[in-house]
Amino acid sequence: MLRPISFVFFLFNLLSLITITTSTPPYIADENITVNCGTSVNSKAGDLREWVGDIGSKFAPTEDLNHKSNASRAQIQGSAEYVPYMTARLSYFQFTYVFQVTPGQKFVRLYFYPASYSDFDRSKGFFTVKAGSFTLLRNFSASILADSLKKQTFVKEFCINVEKNQKLNLTFIPFSSNYYAFINGIEIVSMPTDLYYRPQGFKGEVPLYVGQASHQFYINYNMALEMVYRLNVGGGLISSVEDTGTFREWSTDRDYMLTGGFLPRNLSFIPNYSKIQNYTAPDDVYRSAMSMGPNISKNMVSNLTWGLPIDTGFNYLVRLHFCEIEPLIKFDGERVFIIYIDYQVAEERADVISWTDSNDTPYFKDYVVMIQKKGEDNHTLSIDLHPRTDGTLRDAILNGVEVFKLSNTDGNLAGPSMVPPLLDQQQPANKSSTKKTIFIAIGSGVGFLVVLTLVCSMVLWKSKKNKRFGSYHPQPKWRCWPYPYKQKLTRTKASSLPEVRCRYFTLDELKTATNNFNEELIIGVGGFGNVYKGVIEQGNMTVAIKRLQPESQQGAQEFRTEIEMLSQLRHVHLVSLIGYCNYESEMILVYEYMTNGTLRHHLYDTDNDPLTWKQRLQICIGAARGLHYLHTSTKHPIIHRDVKTTNILLDEKWVSKVSDFGLSKMGLDNIAVSTLVKGTLGYLDPDYARRQQLTEKSDVYSFGVVMFEVLCARKVLNQRLQEEQRNLASWAKKCIERGTISQIIDPYLTDKMAPECFKVYVELAESCVRDQGVQRPTMNDVMEKLEFALELQENANITKDVNVMEKLEFALEFKENADMTKDINSEEVSLIHATSTSSAPWYNNVYNGQVLESTSGTELTTINSGLSYPGQS
Ligand SMILES: *[C@@H]1O[C@H](CO)[C@@H](O)[C@H](O)[C@H]1NC(C)=O
Ligand SMILES: *[C@@H]1O[C@H](CO)[C@@H](O)[C@H](O)[C@H]1NC(C)=O
Ligand SMILES: *[C@@H]1O[C@H](CO)[C@@H](O)[C@H](O)[C@H]1NC(C)=O
Ligand SMILES: *[C@@H]1O[C@H](CO)[C@@H](O)[C@H](O)[C@H]1NC(C)=O
Ligand SMILES: *[C@@H]1O[C@H](CO)[C@@H](O)[C@H](O)[C@H]1NC(C)=O
Questions:
Q1: Strand ranges inside 616-690, DSSP E
Q2: What residues bind ATP, as annotated (predicted)?
Q3: Which of 166, 161, 165, 183 shows the shortest CA–CA distance to 174?
């Protein structure tokens, strides 16, 4: 007797067996290799295919005899209990799978489950995968990718053409001897010749090169493709067994659809493959679609938009699938629309019926679009459909999207390198700190409420945000924030990108960037070494490259840990660390380039135009914010220790940013030091010098000195002056006491400062340089007082050189925040969906702008809070 549960299971198996065996797919792959890596056992996977264990089989990888790879089971149980994720092949050395396959185009699918395997730490899987001359993945971390996808396992799919007498070699190369490469499963499936490749001489339509005036783009056999998106628009997930015979998986588009849409119909009609091959896509792709809906006036002022995050620096093949599924639309000229890809017109006049002659007839269109590298690695590919006024319906439709990355001329498909995880990474003591916070918070009722409110609003904000932006960033960000995500679709805040890491540069890359550390490119010199101006990203991005002198060296390990920590600090008023290089004795830091140099070089002994008083105030406010962030954003305050006008840099918009934070702690700075006390003379906190106890208030002292330097435009220590006047801080203090401070200010500022503003400023600066730390304000107080001073100045309205741009820049930060909330709250995405099997009567009334109940009684719903699809909550 079968127990009920196993009976059901049995039935289920039988059913799936029946569905699979009874429907012959339109295409039968002559090559269908599935290799289960790291095991000797053959097993059936969920798709009923037999996965061959590589151990002892003809698929066993070739490797150096001295460096055998390991086979191992995943240590985390219950999460990947299915083939081929249960086992993996792992090695600290290169290994190669060699497949003898028939010539032709193949799908190559790589299955990864980044878990901890015995002796193989999850985070240390870091490697490159090559297929013959193609680089499929480079300096790649499966765990970083999985984490950013919020998935335990994932598959990477590639298309490769194998020439006659060629073998298909897949080589796995660890990043270095401290990192390993691994793979759980490999799948090789042949595909119809005309599925995606469009070589020269192809009989049929060849993709149009978008933006290149009706040029065609050939997908030649010497190219490899990487599948980036394959979406069943308006429909649900289609699993690999439900595909047309090549085991492609189709996902839903709902995470990528940016505007509301309307599901015109969802019927189980039999598509009529009179125009394209029946293996192009599963029937279900054509049975579901998205359109704009009945409101013509609304349609004419909006787009049907999908946003797909991709890497820059590649050509992409974009395949759009169409099928007119509305039975009432039968003639040319009814549903006519424009297709934009990446904000460029790809199709001036899309009219599905004119392509197919009838409805229920699938069709597809291919476009290739070049996504240039413009200093950033991430880009959101936008697909916009907009109804044309000459169509009667004023609507658009889309049934499916496929996006492939095309290999470069050098056979590369890999995106930006990820940063290798640190060896023996120190675990941040997050857990205990959380506990502590909660404990303290509970201890004081008010605090608890505050924390609760904060947590709640964060959760709310996040969930709201997720509705619109949610999995809108499924691709990991390897780059440091803030990268200028300028695209209109992407609005990101640092906090929403916890996975952000800093980039690792090779020494060669940096040599190229600086013309082999050419002396002419030196923009700064100091005790730590030289700073070079360099260009990366094929000359598209300027950076500052700080090459530390070997003498200032410390343990490479410590260096990396420190850099890793510093790269986590992201603030608009901190100079961003873009990446680093740590190769043999070299330690190099790569920072964002600050066009306007140091604050010091705009104050005195310079040919630069003097800064206006308001500019100076804004620069001080920015620097104060940056320091405040350092003091408060991490568990232990980060004390800069070397606040001075040469460490406050100005970007092209005169936004001030604090640089060199964290370095003094590492002994990597340009500091004239007494044996124990570090700091720059003139800025050095006397209290710290005396007691040798460092606190945030030491930075406050130095900041006070900076404020006087900004006000007086003179050196903080000038040995040429009389004894009394040499040290700016003590001289300013004396002048304040004597009431003569206005006599020592920068002559340029005379008459340009509002008296109230001046007063607040001077009082604040004076309080910063008080003798004892406890008497000084916090950076937060400083920030607020400075903002107040600026307000006074603006109200007084005596500045003759009001610069509108300045005001704009300054307000930008606040505005951005405001915009963000506004977007989420105000933009209600409405989607009307009909689950009725017959929405035709409804659609019939579209032209009158009326909404009728559907006849079958199933609801026509309007959802205002986000996208929802029938049958998928
Ligand atoms: C697909 O089309 C081919 C002819 O192009 C035909 O022989 C085959 O039966 C069709 N398969 C299915 C499942 O419709
Ligand atoms: C693939 O590997 C085999 C065995 O290692 C080697 O003989 C062959 O040259 C390789 N082919 C290519 C295209 O790399
Ligand atoms: C159609 O859209 C416009 C503009 O968005 C809106 O003002 C109008 O109320 C809508 N009409 C209907 C019937 O929903
Ligand atoms: C639709 O998208 C195109 C291309 O991105 C853009 O130029 C156009 O302004 C958009 N139209 C509307 C109404 O949003
Ligand atoms: C991976 O990164 C290392 C160090 O940055 C570099 O030496 C190597 O060339 C990179 N690998 C590839 C395939 O680019």
A1: 648-650, 656-658
A2: 546
A3: 183
104 and 227 belong to one structural domain:
no
Cβ distance 623 to 703 under 8 Å?
yes
Q: Where are the alpha helices (DSSP H) in 657-718?
A: 663-666, 686-691, 696-712
Query: What's the domain count of the chain?
Result: 4
Which atom, in ligand 1's list, is nearest to the CA of 25?
A: 13
- Pair 512, 506: CB distance under 8 Å: no
Interval 391-420: pLDDT, tens: 888 999 999 999 999 999 888 998 877 776
Tens of pLDDT, residue by residue over 232-277, are 998 888 989 889 999 999 999 988 988 877 777 657 788 999 999 9
Identify which of 262, 292, 297 to mutate to test ligand 3's pocket (most ligand atoms within 8 A of the CB): 297
Instruction: Say if residue 285 is in the same domain as residue 396.
Output: yes
Counting residues of the chain whose pLDDT is more than 90, the rounded percentage is 41
Last residue of a domain, one of 138, 156, 191: 191
Q: Is 797 in the pocket of ligand 3 (CB under 6 A)?
A: no
Pick from 640, 620, 774, 779: nearest CA to 707: 620
**Ligand 5 and 176: CB distance under 6 A:** no
Last residue within a domain, chosen from 564, 592, 620: 592
Please tell me the distance between residue 407's alpha carbon and the centre of ligand 1 in angstroms: 32
Q: Which atom of ligand 2 is nearest to the CA of 166?
A: 13
The verdict on 524 and 610 lying in the same domain is no
**Closest protein CA for atom 7 of ligand 1:** 26
For 57-94, the pLDDT digits (tens) are: 999 998 877 777 777 776 554 455 578 888 899 999 99
Verify that 639 and 546 share a domain, yes or no: no
Task: Enter the pTM of the model.
Answer: 0.55
- For ligand 5, atom 13, the nearest C-alpha belongs to 138
CATH number at residue 45: 2.60.120.430
Question: Which residue(s) pair with 524 in the sheet?
Answer: 531
Q: What amino acid positions are annotated as catalytic residues?
A: 642
Domain limits for position 671: 600-793
Known binding residues for ATP are: 546
- Ligand 1 atom with least separation from CA of 277: 5
